[in-house]
């Protein structure tokens, strides 16, 4: 009976990981991640203003959305907590590109997935040209955060 109830409990909770976690503003660093305007961003700039007679120190945080590249900015008190996204990066071998821009990917265990598309713009075009050429296999890096997934970069496999 104990095993049965434990199985139900663990199955109902999923992985147990949260999409975000709180972090003190003073612990954030450039090149780290933070949620700005409800979007997962990589921090590109941080500036702290000195405290004055009208209040405590403030921190200006500028970040770039990791999925869209859009710039976001926020000013927060230095002692506040902000949400930080759990960002998971995974490398896949690029197996195929369909005519509509869909991609077929394979992980290091041999499992495949076909649920992502090439990124729009310059990165997507570069990947397509490299894949269609006679060059070596391509590896793509897929990032997942707050329920979104996208291909963010590529490299030529050295195998």
Quick recap of the structure?
By secondary structure, the protein is mainly β. The chain contains two helices and eleven strands. The strands form three sheets. A five-stranded antiparallel beta sheet has the order 9-8-7-10-11, with helices on one face. Strands 2-3-4-5 form a four-stranded antiparallel beta sheet, with no helix packed on it. The protein has a two-stranded antiparallel sheet with strand order 1-6.
Q: Could you explain how this protein is built, in words?
A:
The protein is mainly beta and about 160 residues long. The protein folds into two domains: about 15-85, Roll (SH3 type barrels), CATH 2.30.30; about 90-155, OB fold (Dihydrolipoamide Acetyltransferase, E2P). The protein is built from two helices and eleven strands, in the order αβββββββββαββ. The chain has helices at about 1-15, 120-130, and strands at about 20-25, 35, 40-50, 60-65, 70-75, 80-85, 90-95, 100-105, 110-115, 140-145, 150-155. Strands 9-8-7-10-11 form a five-stranded antiparallel β-sheet, covered by helices on one side. It has a four-stranded antiparallel β-sheet with strand order 2-3-4-5, with no helix packed on it. It is elongated. The N and C termini lie far apart (about 50 Å).
Descriptive key words:
SH3 type barrels, 11 strands, mainly beta, single chain, 14% helix, disordered N terminus, 2 domains, four-stranded antiparallel sheet, elongated, 159 residues
